[in-house]
Amino acid sequence: MARPRIKDVARHAGVSEKTVSNVINDYEHVSERTRRAVQEAIEHLGYKVNLAGRHLRKGRTGIIALVVPELDVPYFAELARHVIREAEAHSLTVLIHQTGGDRDHELSALAGFGSAFVDGVILSPLALTADDLRDRADAPPTVLLGELLEEGADHVAIDNEKAAREATEHLIGLGRRAILAIGGRDDVGLGTAEARTRGYRTALEEAGIAHDPAAAIPVASFRMPDGHEAVARALETGARPDALLCLNDQLALGALRALHEHGVRVPEDVAVIGFDDVEGGRFSVPTLSTVAPDKAAVAKVAVELLQRRMDEAAGTGEADDRAPRDLVVPHRLVLRESTEGAAGNRPVRT
User: Average pLDDT for residues 194-198, to the nearest whole number?
Assistant: First the structure.
C-alpha cells in the first residue's frame, strides 16, 4: 500500500493541502473544527509527517548533539534517556557523542563537529576552559551542563556546592567527625569536583571541625575501581574515618566494597553518601544514601533552552531574550541504609 501523502489527507478531510500544512505546522489561524477534521484524517490514513523535510525547509537538520565524557557512566546514560525523551517532544533527534574528557573532542563538539550537521549542542565538558568558550561566532547554539566555566555561556546544573554542604551537614548531624571526601580536589577550580569539595569544606568549618587537606582524596577517574582503590589505600595507611562523602555514586559503590573487604560495617562504623542517585545505588548492600539531582529537570530545561537558542539563531526568537542564562535545577538528599541503617530510604531535603 502506498504511503499516504498530504493530498490524500486533504481529500479525506475535505480541505486544501495548504490547510493540512497549516494544521501540521500548528498555524494558529485554523478553526477547531477544521483542525479536528485534519487530525482525524491523519490518524485514519496513518500519515506520517516528514520531519526531515520540515526541518530542511527551515534551514535546519532537526538534529541536536548530547556530548558527554563517558557513555557507560550510569549518570550520563540516565541523563541521555531523559534528553532523548525531551527532544522527541520538540520533534528533534539526538546524536550522542563521547569525548572521553579529551579537550580536542570537546572543542570539536563546541564547533558543531566542523559542519552544519547539528542545529545545537548540549555539552558536559571536563577539559574546556573559559577561553575556549569565547570567540564562537560560527558555532551552533550550545548549552553547558555541569559547573559554569564562562559567564557568557548558557548553563544548566544543580548547585553542587550547596548539595555537598547539605550532605556533609547530614553526616555531621549523625555525630560523624572524621569525614573523608572521596574524589575531592582541595584546590581552586571550576569543575564539579572542586565545587563539591568546597561545599564539604564549608560544612566542616561551620561545624568547627578542623579541615585536613589530606581528607580530600583525589582519584584518577570517577568509577567504581577508583573508589575502591582510594578507600582501600586510606584504610591500609592508617586512616580511621567514620564517614565518607563520595563525589559520585560510582565512587561510593566502590567504597562500599572496600569497606566490606576490610571488615568495616556500614553505617555502624562508617556512614557513606554518594552523588547522582543512579539505579545501582538502590540495589547495593546496603542501599546507598545519595544526593539526587533532578535529571528529568536537567534534560527538560537544557532542551528547552537549546530550542530557544536555535529559534533565535534562525531569526524566530525574541531579541530581548538572548542574554546567556545560568539555570539551577533542584536536587534532594535521599537517605538510605548506608547512613540510616535499615530504617532509611526517605528523602529529607530539596
Answer: 95
Q: What is the pTM of this model?
A: 0.80
Q: Averaging pLDDT over each range in 12-26, 93-107, 139-153, 269-283, which range is the top one?
A: 269-283
Phi/psi at 180 (5° precision): -95, 145
Q: Residues 92, 95, 96, 100: is their CA dihedral positive or negative?
A: negative
Start-to-end Cα distance in the chain? 54
Q: What is the mean pLDDT of residues 114-133?
A: 85
- Cell numbers that stand for 81 in this block: 534517556
Please name the amino acid found at residue 120.
G
Could you give the angle at which helices 249-261 and 224-236 cross, rounded to 10 degrees? 40
163 and 198 Cβ atoms separated by less than 8 Å: no
Which residues in 289-319 are b (16+ Cβ under 10 Å) and which e? Answer: bbbbbbbbbbbbbbbbbbbbbbbebeeebee
Q: How far is CA 290 from CA 47, 163, 278, 282, in A?
A: 46, 10, 9, 10
- In sign, the C-alpha dihedral spanning 219, 221, 227, 228 is negative
- Residues 203-237: tens digit of each pLDDT: 999 999 998 989 999 999 999 999 999 999 999 99
Whether the ω angle into residue 241 lies within 30 degrees of 0, i.e. cis, is: no
Q: Which of 208, 205, 123, 193 is nearest to 163 (CA)?
A: 193
What pLDDT is stored for residue 178 in this prediction? 97
How many helices (DSSP H) and strands (DSSP E) are in the chain? 12, 13
Q: Is residue 301 pLDDT above 90, yes or no?
A: yes
